[in-house]
Fold these 2 entries.
Entry 1:
Amino acid sequence: MSDAPVIAVDGPSGSGKGTISRLLAQRLGWHLLDSGALYRLTALAAMRRGFEFEDATALAAVAGALDVRFAGDGERARVLLEGEDVGLAIRAEDCGAAASRVAALGPVRDALLQRQRDFRRRPGLVADGRDMGTVVFPDAALKIFLTASQEERASRRLKQLKDQGVSANLPSLLRDLAERDARDARRAVSPLRPADDAIEIDSSGLDIPAVLDRILALARERNLV
Ligand SMILES: Nc1ncnc2c1ncn2[C@@H]1O[C@H](COP(=O)(O)OP(=O)(O)O)[C@@H](O)[C@H]1O
Ligand SMILES: Nc1ccn([C@H]2C[C@H](O)[C@@H](COP(=O)(O)OP(=O)(O)O)O2)c(=O)n1
């Protein structure tokens, strides 16, 4: 296994993991793993092939054979599934909900495990997800568990969707978020939970630069930067 250092950023939907991880990786010049994208891609590929979400064997085969490429980085990063840019399709709310369902299946998680670990390369990796600190990189040098109240997360998501020109409303976003939180936290395999040695940051009253500064300070304390 690579000995490159890992910063794990786990937390529920809308807590800011993706944004913070991307900025952190840019600032440090490290690689980035958006593990949620792999579950979203599995869900999208399965939906396109008409597979049932209950069919763990078929879905694990889809996950294991995903032909995916992450091209470029930052805001302009492209996600290619079988050569097609599916960046927008996988970000849709229905794909997030479908990802949460396929992610509850042990065989799917097993099929994606090594693919995630392969992202670990020098000079380091920022890994964003639900089980980065507990399962995928239990030896991560720094584990952050990012949270925010459900209301705050839903209103962030509403603003994000509106900015993208997607229509949405707060009550239905709150309902979807609560459903996804419950499914991600209660599943039997790799549920969403902080690792014992994770540092919890509640970003409810913090803006993005403040969260980033806090994590950078922790990284400095641990001599990672
Ligand atoms: N600390 C914060 N304060 C306000 N808005 C935030 C904060 N962190 C993230 N956001 C915004 O919330 C939305 C969801 O963030 P995102 O990074 O996609 O969350 P996640 O990856 O955890 O689902 C984005 O529009 C992002 O700009
Ligand atoms: N390491 C991971 C990452 C995501 N998942 C699942 C659970 C999530 O509901 C879906 C989508 O994750 P993603 O991080 O892209 O979603 P959010 O941006 O947080 O809304 O995938 C997971 O089970 N384990």
Note: The first strand starts at residue 6 and ends at 10.
Entry 2:
Amino acid sequence: MSAPIVLSADHVTRRFGDFTAVDEVSLRVRGGEVVGLLGANGAGKTTVMRMLLGLLPVSSGVVGLLGRPPNRERRRSIGYVPQNLGLYRDLTLRENLAFVADAYGTSVPQLPDDLAPYADRLVGQVPLGAQRQAAFVAALSHHPAAVLLDEPTSGVDALARARLWDTIRDQSDAGVGVLVTTHYMQEAQQCDRLLLMSHGRLVAQGTETDVIDGATAVAVRCEDWTSAFAALSDAGLAATLDGRAVRVVAASPDRVQAVLGNAQVTATLTAVPATIEERMLMLDRDFTHSGPDWQT
Ligand SMILES: Nc1ncnc2c1ncn2[C@@H]1O[C@H](COP(=O)(O)OP(=O)(O)OP(=O)(O)O)[C@@H](O)[C@H]1O
């Protein structure tokens, strides 16, 4: 039997004045799964999370927390780490944890060993990685059924990030449903399922293979990679640089060849599978242009 649905949205829309920040989004998160919510800045991810929690009213549609409309009581069964972490900056780490335990009526959680040196420091005097870890401890202290994490590892080093992901995996192994936003594609690959948002809409979902959906990018190999990159960018193509490797999405190899030819840059072109990030870029361009310039 499948695990229960802990978070749900059905055709949820949120408008701010004339602006539609979230447009007809439907999603489900079940206990035990880690679902990644991806999208460019401003795509609507935080707004979705805040509506799921009932912290922001929907303009239309229905959200569910543990199968019912969100309310204060059901929020007590949820852990939430917002982008700003939600810690009180005028309290120490230890005081923050005591405060949260008091609010939930639970015992004060044990500080992990690596946080012990910071226990009695004010939040603002603690490195960001330790703040994030403490926010996790606080959000998980009452054994929630679902956890919402808004860019939980932003700005922390690789080791701290790996630790936080260990904690996320421990939670899902224990049956907790996790919805997590991230800008790190390596983290997206650790999710069981992905939801891609662009301009308020859900534009793709499923496994990494599902969301990439066979899309390809053009890899450009040439000596003069700086001229290649400049010419492609000047022509309005979506060119990216990874070291000296130039790649282009949403453009045919013929179009890339034509632009490079005009700029008198000699290059070898290969169609390669797109990454998640490139797929997101393509879907964003599909929205902002009338269509991908693949055909042009
Ligand atoms: N209270 C508000 N009033 C007006 N516009 C808002 C409000 N909250 C969010 N928005 C707008 O809604 C859009 C979606 O914002 P949201 O914070 O959900 O995006 P996001 O995908 O979480 O972005 P980021 O990755 O930068 O956190 C943005 O254009 C934002 O400016």
Note: The longest strand covers residues 5-16.
